[in-house]
Specification:
Length: about 725
């Protein structure tokens, strides 16, 4: 295989210590399901993970709902003349694992010498089909190099997998089908969704023996092939996954029969044929989504494609009932829950590349409005209050405690579900952004309007009036900087609420112009008095500042100062030194907060304001959240700090590929991948939309010779080509 450093992510060495990291990096997915890049053979460090988007289950009332980890379909143990393939034993003579971003294929090529001196070449290929989202495949080719002897494949479906100990499935049945097929039929314990995982096999070579093994929640197909020195034998494992919540199922279908029939049909085509149609779909996706960077070093090109690749893989293509989890479909981290990461970090990529997918993501919020209405009511508010962590219903699913505070040694309470309310303005912001970029008035005036109006109503009930100061306040919140809890008048939140209430007034004007719009106002019972109240709140909301310097919140300036730069870049060091309570009382930020606002509401701040606030907040920010660096890159570009912009882009871009935060094993940082795309297109590409007009003000980093990408904008497809000496925007068919 010829390597292309602009398209191939390569693992050059087998290192069990890095197994978890690469499992996340090499995740394959198609938006319906995702599977971590685990090895076929078993190792102690191996953490299998297959997740189906939107298939949630709450195994126990004391635990929050999460995406259940499906049976491990990847497992294939290989016995080479009786010796089991185990790269921790014997000698690894050659090793290379390559993720081909262009075609969505994971390949591993190994030459292994067993402890008894048998040398074998092995080639593994894997895909998760973009053409048929229910199909995933593995092909294994084995060539004995210096011996003759049986080659045995033990291919399993293992339903003993749990989510870190939580078992989400009841086993209904498992058995065999067709010639070489095995299946598991299971049901989630609380949400009662059925799941079928069925694996059919094709063997290549002279079959000496085959059999099946049945164990608790586990079924295995064994094939023994005749192995001859220099001759390749192998097995293809085609796995089919269906769940009872799939929207493409025929009505009243028997799920198991449907899945087994589909599986049998699929096995009639060869691995290469399946691969080819899968790669054709990738080609179509890349046609609109690729970003081409020409520079002396290929790393920037590779990381940007890595980001786009995973954004495409983790996002449901046509299912508006589902959104993107903070870790995509690549790990158990954050339990498959959906955060503001989707609307503020991930959505822009889809908005400008695949607007229909962006619309689906916003429709997810529309469909979860009933949950948001319940959240508001349960907390004593009106309207709709979106969950900080959302799953299938939109009700709040944030866990109540997290890790252990190294200073108090007590579990750390997680207050985000109770206080991180800015999500209810981030979503309206994203809807307006969608409208600006796509011009989709229908969506704005129906689904969008309901969301904007119900969240405006929520904010009107969330603010409190301070008669002494004649202003409206929002008390006891967490802003984007999660190191501060229970704060009052977070500038980010209040400024966006003001923006939201003003935009709602614009929206209401549009609604009043059309009968359909009037129906929405009637349906929600929006009154003139209410509309007036919203504008009074917008005019009088408290925005704490001193001249050009915005106060992150009331009292931030009185907090103790600490030398943040001493602790940056070493995960956990600050926490060990101070503990959470003291961090809460210090001028230290986890992530962009005021700086985040300077980006989102960029037009509302002068260059001088942006510079003053950057200078003040940047040195106080730890970037302990993966959401921070990309936004700093964009704002640095806005204030002409070219070197900082590039350095922050590189920091963001490296998070998952180099495991710089040390936690990629729990899953990819989806928001950071989206942020990376924004740092290129909105930062270096300088693409912005002002009052419905597209503007492009490129700032190419020194290291790049050119940058080219496509944009969908208000029904047109454009190509932006930026060189050192200028740029052009052309229309594409
Ligand atoms: O949404 C983010 C938050 O801003 C920082 N903590 C992690 C969350 C999920 O990515």
């Amino acid at each position: 295989m010829t390597l292309d450093p602009r398209w191939h992510v390569v693992e050059e060495k087998f290192d069990p210590k890095k197994m978890g990291h690469y499992e996340s990096v090499f995740t394959l997915g198609n938006g319906y399901l995702g599977t971590r890049g685990v090895f076929e053979e078993l190792y102690r460090e191996r953490t299998p993970g297959t997740f189906v988007a939107g298939l949630f289950d709450q195994a126990h009332p004391n635990e929050v709902t999460e995406l259940p980890n499906l049976p491990d379909w990847v497992e294939v143990s290989i016995l080479l003349n009786g010796e089991e393939l185990d790269l921790t034993q014997g000698q690894v003579l050659q090793y290379r694992r390559v993720l081909d971003l262009k075609g969505g294929v994971l390949t591993r090529e190994v030459v292994w010498e067993s402890p008894q001196g048998r040398r074998t070449a092995l080639r593994f290929r894997r895909f998760v089909s973009l053409a048929n989202v229910h199909l995933v495949g593995i092909s294994i080719a084995v060539t004995p190099e210096n011996y003759d002897g049986p080659i045995e494949f033990r291919s399993a479906l293992n339903g003993q997998v749990t989510n870190s100990g939580t078992q989400h499935f009841t086993s209904i049945e498992h058995s065999t089908y067709a010639h070489r097929g095995i299946y598991l039929l299971q049901e989630t314990v609380q949400s009662k969704q059925q799941v079928v995982v069925a694996a059919n096999h094709v063997v290549h070579g002279v079959l000496l023996d085959e059999s099946f093994k049945n164990a608790h929640r586990r079924i295995v197909y064994n094939a023994v092939l005749s192995g001859k020195r220099g001759q390749t034998v192998g097995i293809d494992k085609f796995t089919t996954i269906y769940t009872s919540r799939d929207q493409d199922l025929p009505r009243a279908v028997n799920l198991l029969h449907h899945a087994l029939a589909a599986s049998s049909r699929q096995t009639q085509q060869g691995f290469d044929q399946h691969l080819e149609v899968h790669q054709q779909v990738w080609e179509q996706r890349w046609q609109w989504a690729d970003i081409e960077i020409v520079s002396d070093d290929h790393f920037d090109q590779l990381v940007v494609r890595f980001a786009v690749f995973h954004l495409i893989q983790m996002t449901p293509w046509n299912d508006p009932r589902v959104s993107v989890a903070a870790k995509g479909l690549s790990g158990e981290g954050y339990k498959g829950h959906v955060f503001w990461d989707t609307e503020i970090f991930i959505l822009p990529f889809f908005l400008y590349s695949f607007p229909q997918v962006a619309k689906n993501l916003l429709t997810y919020r529309y469909l979860t409005l009933p949950g948001a209405i319940t959240n508001a009511a349960q907390n004593g508010y009106s309207g709709a209050m979106f969950a900080w962590e959302s799953a299938d219903t939109g009700e709040e699913t944030t866990p109540e405690v997290g890790g252990i505070d190294p200073v108090t040694r007590k579990p750390i309470p997680i207050l985000c579900g109770k206080q991180e309310h800015h999500i209810s303005v981030d979503i309206p912001y994203a809807i307006w952004n969608y409208y600006q970029v796509t011009g989709d008035r229908d969506f704005l005036l129906k689904e969008g309007a309901e969301i904007l109006l119900l969240t405006a109503r929520f904010w009107a009930s969330r603010v409190s009036y301070n008669p002494d100061r004649d202003w409206y306040e929002i008390k006891e919140v967490i802003g984007p900087d999660e190191y501060k809890e229970g704060i009052d008048n977070n500038y980010y939140t209040n400024a966006l609420v003001q923006w939201h209430l003003k935009k709602t007034a614009e929206l209401v004007k549009l609604l009043k112009e059309s009968p359909a719009g009037q129906c929405v106002l009637l349906k929600l019972g929006v009154t003139e008095g209410e509309l007036q109240d919203w504008q009074v709140i917008a005019a009088k909301i408290r925005l704490p500042r001193e001249g050009e310097l915005l106060h992150q919140f009331e009292g931030f300036m009185e907090l103790q100062e600490i030398d943040v730069l001493k602790y940056r870049d070493v995960p956990g060091l600050l926490q060990k030194a101070y503990g959470w309570e003291e961090i809460n009382r210090s001028q230290v930020l986890k992530q962009a907060d005021v700086v985040m606002l300077l980006y989102l509401l960029g037009d509302e701040f002068t260059l001088a304001e942006k510079r003053v606030n950057w200078d003040f907040y940047e040195p106080k920010t730890m970037h302990d959240s993966s959401l921070s660096a990309a936004i700093h890159s964009i704002v640095a570009n806005d204030i002409d700090l070219a070197e900082e912009a590039y350095a922050y882009f590189q920091k963001a871009a490296r998070i998952d590929l180099t495991n710089s935060m040390g936690n990629t094993h729990a899953g990819l940082h989806a928001a950071s991948l989206g942020g990376c795309w924004q740092a290129v297109v909105h930062g270096f590409g300088g693409v912005r939309v002002k009052s419905g007009e597209l503007s492009v003000t490129p700032k190419l980093p020194k290291a790049w010779h050119s940058l080219r990408f496509k944009l969908a904008f208000q029904g047109k497809r454009l190509q932006v080509s930026i060189r050192r000496d200028g740029y052009e925007v052309t229309t594409v068919d």
